[in-house]
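[recover] target loaded
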């Protein structure tokens, strides 16, 4: 294989890359979001500079993605922290757990999504929307919400997920020293809100050494939303180079 062909390959192995070139379009992408207030010191301890914590709000999310271009069908869960960057409200993705190898590889290699293998699930149990996250054989989170108790406007729903989003990209060199250490930025585009609802909600987080969501404890549930969307995730861009 010549150098030009190598450079056009999105990933390895060359004969069957882990993921295709984008863009990545998500159809019928369904969210269960529970925003809660946490301990401010615990949140400041995990938010990287130059991001700033103004109010200690965390969004626990479970996302069902049955139709993801190039990636297929999978479910994802994690924590998104409300921050500010250069005076602008923003989100910082703290952790993500999912059940799809190509999506994990793409997120970590081609962007900066902090993805690990996990077993999230989003389903309806009678009159309750339920989101769970298992790490290995152990439960680390259970979220429940009343199913479609109230509606949200498209503007309210879009505001829930379209803030500028920041992630930390850390890649060591072969000597073990940092080779890439960047804060990167992305933002959802081409968003269609197909449905948006709210309702009463509860969230339980369970202690785990390697999936430590409970390190950001639930002090108060602020709101819960259930969204059905179509959207595109564009490429990320560098916001801050820690090695520059």
């Amino acid at each position: 294989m010549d150098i030009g062909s190598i450079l056009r390959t999105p990933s390895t192995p060359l004969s069957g890359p882990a993921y295709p070139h984008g863009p990545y379009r998500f159809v019928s992408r369904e969210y269960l979001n529970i925003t809660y207030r946490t301990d401010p010191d615990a949140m400041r301890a995990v938010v990287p500079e130059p991001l700033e914590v103004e109010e200690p709000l965390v969004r626990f999310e479970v996302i069902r993605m049955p139709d993801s271009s190039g990636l297929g069908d999978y479910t994802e869960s994690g924590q998104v922290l409300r921050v500010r960057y250069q005076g602008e409200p923003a989100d910082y993705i703290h952790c993500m757990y999912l059940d799809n190898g190509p999506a994990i590889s793409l997120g970590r290699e081609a962007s900066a999504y902090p993805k690990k293998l996990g077993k999230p699930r989003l389903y309806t149990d009678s009159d309750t929307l339920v989101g769970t996250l298992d790490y290995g054989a152990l439960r680390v989170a259970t979220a429940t919400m009343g199913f479609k108790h109230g509606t949200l406007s498209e503007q309210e729903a879009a505001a829930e997920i379209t803030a500028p989003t920041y992630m930390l990209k850390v890649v060591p060199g072969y000597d073990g020293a940092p080779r890439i250490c960047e804060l990167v930025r992305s933002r959802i585009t081409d968003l269609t809100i197909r449905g948006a609802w709210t309702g009463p909600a509860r969230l339980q987080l369970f202690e785990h050494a390697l999936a430590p969501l409970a390190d950001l404890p639930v002090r108060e549930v602020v709101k819960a939303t259930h969204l059905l969307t179509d959207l595109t995730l564009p490429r990320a861009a560098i916001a801050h180079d820690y090695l520059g």
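[recover] notes: Residues 31 and 209 are 26 Å apart (CA to CA).
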